[in-house]
Amino acid sequence: MDVVEKYDLIVFGGGKAGKTLAMDEARAGKRVAMIEAGMIGGSCINVACIPSKTLIRSAEIAHLLTASAQFGMPGSAVGPDMSIVAARTGNVVAEMVKTNQSGFDASGLELVIGWGRFVAPRTIEVTEVGGSRQLTADRIFLNLGTVADIPEIPGLQEADPLTHVEALRLTGPVRKLLILGGGFIALELGQAFKRLGADVTLIERGPRLLPREDADVAAAILKTMEDEGIKIALGCNVSQVSGKSGEAVTLTAADGSTFDGTHLLVATGRKPRTENMGLELAGVEMDDRGFIKVDDRLRTTATGIWAMGEVAGTPMFTHASLDDYRIVKSDLYGGPRRTSDRTIPYCVFIDPEFARIGLGEDEARRKGVDHRVARLPMDVIPRARTLSRRGGFMKAIIAAQNDEILGFSMLGVNAGDVMSVVQMAMIGKLPYTSLRDCIFAHPTISEGLNMLFANVRSPI
Ligand SMILES: Cc1cc2nc3c(=O)[nH]c(=O)nc-3n(C[C@H](O)[C@H](O)[C@H](O)COP(=O)(O)OP(=O)(O)OC[C@H]3O[C@@H](n4cnc5c(N)ncnc54)[C@H](O)[C@@H]3O)c2cc1C
């Protein structure tokens, strides 16, 4: 305990950016320690993207079965067995944890499992099972992530609500699920649990869903959810919670309305894991919400310490955390990459998917960007018809002066993959006409881009 062990570099928190950097540097011969509380591979694999998308796939199958007659296969659908759903999710997670562990082992990094905190400017103490160690390095990389933020509502803590972590591990049926929040996680899990047999009510404080998306996108997503029977209460301020999640729980709103459920899931936002980490001892400053302050090369206010991923205020996506690794790597080796140079796409795995990159229509208007708009309902795309997946639309924002594509949003089947096609055109700074006139294979959803970009209009 008196000895401070010296490494070439320490990665503190093994999220997407951190583990990628740690393996890279270890493979290059550096002495690397990665301190991780216990989630081998970080949140994405253990409690976030991977288990949620696996559960969503089970929910999609359940949904398809209810519509089997429409595809010429009449017969009664059976209800889901949540223990099998949970086992399948657990297996996919376990497999990916194993792959990550093998990658760590092969790279030569030292994985230090335990809870870490700074005890001196460049020294981290790690509490391991059966003792503690102190580690130091000239270069330290913080990739500590975020956790679900439980709002301070009387009775909420006592109700023992689910967060995504527990919700994704449920092994039994959920009869009546109340969800606090109306963001991406609430929508994805709300739709999945509805399809897995729950009666679902989403309670959102704001006046609309997804305030950062275009109003027509938010309205279409609201309709999609409501058409599936998910109840959504907007502008609803919950002021009191009583009962226990898993048994019976009641939410009371400021206007006196009440909501009853068997389970309560909180998805109201996330807070950085920076409390009690001793960051002030290291000279690492935080903003007023607790996120680590960084410059556009992800350097913190302490020399030799970088921060990456959600804890650094990076958009909350795995691919954004991965790109933080690229930026830090570039900084370490004298490269030019900056966070200010990048555009981060994203996909929300509701059904139909929602994907977006770049400028939205409302944002273009607000910022006074001289633009044109192209729209296409999914319904006219032949592939959408063959699949009976006709819901949603595509929309692109085009620069008025030079035909460049500034943004693309899509609510529709395969939205994430179609967006990547548009993203390539944006990266290559191609005019929209190159997608309008491109030969796409028929019948694919991407073929809809021909029609979309034939519809370019000046805004009304
Ligand atoms: C339900 C859900 C679904 C999501 N789905 C998607 C999706 O489909 N696509 C997508 O791109 N993104 C998705 N995300 C977001 C995505 O999971 C994160 O953006 C991504 O995992 C990047 O996280 P990170 O690199 O910042 O840190 P994390 O992966 O959170 O890693 C931080 C690590 O630090 C460790 N740690 C923290 N404090 C300490 C300490 N004191 N000592 C030791 N270790 C510590 C933690 O154990 C953790 O492993 C989802 C998130 C949630 C919650």
E-strand count: 21
Number of domains: 3
* Portion in strands: 15-25%
Unreliable spans: none
Enumerate how many helices there are, as a single number.
Answer: 13
Mean pLDDT: 97
Strand count, sense and barrel status of the largest sheet are: 7 strands, mixed
Judging from the principal axes of the Cα atoms, what is the shape?
globular
CATH architecture of the largest domain: 3-Layer(bba) Sandwich
Q: Which structural class matches the secondary elements?
A: alpha/beta
Distance between the termini: 70 Å
Ligands present? flavin-adenine dinucleotide
Summarize the structure.
The chain is an alpha/beta fold. It contains 13 helices and 21 strands.
Question: How would you sum up this structure, described in words?
Answer:
With 460 residues, the protein is α/β, with parallel strands linked by helices. It folds into 3 domains: 4-147 and 271-341, FAD/NAD(P)-binding domain (3-Layer(bba) Sandwich); 157-268, FAD/NAD(P)-binding domain (3-Layer(bba) Sandwich), CATH 3.50.50; 352-454, Enolase-like, domain 1, CATH 3.30.390. The protein has helices at residues 16-27, 42-46, 49-66, 82-107, 164-167, 184-195, 215-227, 318-332, 361-367, 382-387, 415-427, 432-436, 448-452, and strands at residues 4-12, 32-36, 110-113, 115-120, 123-128, 131-142, 146-148, 176-180, 199-203, 231-233, 238-244, 248-253, 258-261, 263-266, 270-272, 305-307, 346-348, 354-358, 371-377, 393-399, 405-411. The chain is globular and about 70 Å long. The model has no long low-confidence stretch (mean pLDDT 97). The structure holds flavin-adenine dinucleotide. Flavin-adenine dinucleotide binds at residues 13-17, 35-37, 39, 42-44, 48-49, 52-53, 115-117, 143-145, 164, 185, 273, 277, 309-311, 316-319, 321, 349. Flavin-adenine dinucleotide binds next to helix 1, strand 2, helix 2, helix 3 and strand 4.
